[in-house]
Amino acid sequence: MWIKYDVNSIVSRVFNAKDSTLKSPVVKINKQDVAEIKKRFDNKKVRFTALTFLCYAKAYADKNGEFRLSSVGLSAWLGINRKTLRNRYIKELIDFDYLIEVERHKNNPKWSMAYNSKIDQPYDSQATKYKLNVVLHNSGDHILINNNIWILFSELF
Fold first, then answer.
1. Average pLDDT, the chain
2. Which of 59, 25, 149 is nearest to 69 (CA)?
3. With contact defined as beta carbons under 8 Å apart, do 71 and 90 qualify?
4. Helices 44-60 and 71-78 meet at what angle, rounded to 10?
5. What is d(CA 123, CA 134) in angstroms, rounded to the nearest whole number?
6. 104: pLDDT confidence band, cut at 50, 70 and 90?
7. Which DSSP string corresponds to 13-35?
8. Strand, helix or coil at 143?
9. Closest of 71, 76, 65 to residue 147, by C-alpha
10. Tens digits of per-residue pLDDT, 7-65?
């Protein structure tokens, strides 16, 4: 099923969903999460990228721990050049076995979103499917507030 990028399709899809309330997941980071990142990485920007993937996975991973994330969207969120993010930081996360690239996106542009009925939500078909090679447990004292990953990073590192 495809959802076009228009307001009517998006509104219709939300109201036809099983649970039509929009949710904002609370992402919590615990001491074990921080220790794992510190143990594997010493570069500040790689740690920052690892924390970002961890937060995103805690919010959006499916029951197998897999999630889709667009490098364009991620670079816009973080304010880091997409090629640098992909070729340096994400590559290091994969090289040090923190992140697994399950399925890479295809390079054909699409002006619509795919719909995954298994998780009952749309996803960007240009996004790469990833899985973290760590335990995802959404607990801890540190909370991601307003998607401001920089503040959370400065608290933890």
1. 80
2. 59
3. yes
4. 120
5. 23
6. confident
7. HHHHSSS-S------EE-HHHHH
8. strand
9. 76
10. 666 666 666 665 544 455 789 999 999 999 999 999 999 999 999 999 999 998 888 89
Beta strand pairing call for 121-123 and 112-116: antiparallel
Contact 88, 150 (CB under 8 A): no
Q: How would you class 83 by CB atoms within 10 Å of its CB: exposed for 0-12, middle for 13-18, buried for 19 or more? A: exposed
Q: Where are the domains of the chain?
A: 2-156
Give CA–CA dist 60/135, Å, rounded.
14
Burial class (CB in 10 A: 0-12, 13-18, 19+), 140: middle
CA separation for the pair 55, 59 (Å, rounded):
6
Q: How many CA atoms within 13 Å lie on the side-chain side of 99?
A: 30
Place of tokens 């930081």: 89
Overall residue count recorded for the chain in this entry? 157
The whole-angstrom separation of Cα 37 and Cα 50 is 7
Residue 149 is encoded by which pair of tokens?
């990953």
* Backbone φ and ψ of 98, nearest 5°: -90, -35
What secondary structure letter does DSSP report for 104?
P
